[in-house]
Write a structure and sequence with these properties.
Layout: H1 6-29, H2 45-55, H3 59-66
Length: 67
């Protein structure tokens, strides 16, 4: 009971991949650094991050306005 089985780790990796990878891609498309997507796994900070992300001016939009 003290250790986890291989199935546990497969499920953990699957959940991480299906939640972090899309967030990473969205953050990069917006013009921010990809590792910011890791903030989605920090309790309370994830909610704050989503609101800041939604309401801020994205760097990629600033580039589009200048062109």
């Amino acid at each position: 009971m003290g250790s986890f089985s291989i199935w546990h780790w497969i499920i953990v990796l699957f959940v991480l991949a299906t939640s972090i990878v899309p967030a990473w891609l969205i953050v990069k498309k917006a013009g921010y650094a990809g590792p910011l997507a890791l903030l989605t796994w920090v309790p309370f900070l994830n909610i704050v991050f989503i609101w800041i992300f939604a309401l801020s001016h994205w760097p990629v939009m600033k580039k589009a306005e200048q062109a």
